[in-house]
Amino acid sequence: MTKTLYLMRHGQTLFNELHKIQGVCDSPLTQKGIDDAKKVGTYFKQNNVNFDHAYSSTQERASDTLELVTDLPYQRVKGLKEWNFGLFEGESEKLNPKFDPKIGSLGDFFVQYGGEGADQVQQRMVKTLTNIMQQPDNENVFVVSHGGAIYLFLKNWIPLEEIVKHVELHNCSVLKFTFSDDVFNYEKTINVTE
């Protein structure tokens, strides 16, 4: 049986607007973040996209986004949280290391500063989303998570060059996947706010 996952990045936050590193630390949604999340909810209604289950990261920016998109009851799941950037949390994005195009991420850079490595985040996201989709009643699922965590999850399923060419992961972007035999297949990205 093929199932469907709609995986959404949370709405814009104060730290996004201020260009601050935001992983495990949290900040509130901006008015733009609120308005954009509502637009996604309208898109789903207008296109008759209905969910049987919903999940969000335990971080407030994700659960607040979910509540603006749907009034479906949902579960908060720690495995969906954002990458932990350690001592870089709350600092200027200008302090981020350079992206390594050979590995397609920042690798283990943040581990030395008390954060997580890219592989650790990727494995956590793959395990968590696989467990969610394996639930017998979960056929059309809505999940709200975070940019870094979603990127690393996607990177597990499609080549880096395809991500660079075809996927824009803005705040409130929604990635649609099909799920069958424990494999996620990326279908498309829904961007209704850009």
Structure overview:
One of its GO terms (molecular function) is phosphatase activity. This is Histidine phosphatase family protein. InterPro entries: His_Pase_superF_clade-1 (IPR013078), His_PPase_superfam (IPR029033), PG/BPGM_mutase_AS (IPR001345), PGM_Phosphatase (IPR050275). With 194 residues, the protein is of the alpha/beta class. It has one domain: Rossmann fold, CATH 3.40.50.1240. It has 6 helices and 6 strands, in the order βααβαβαβααββ. It has helices spanning 14-17, 31-46, 60-69, 118-134, 147-155, 160-166; strands spanning 3-9, 53-57, 75-77, 140-145, 174-180, 183-190. Strands 3-2-4-1-5-6 form a 6-stranded mixed β-sheet, with helices on both faces. Helix 2 packs across helix 3 (60-69) and helix 4 crosses helix 5 (147-155). The termini are far apart. The mean pLDDT is 96.
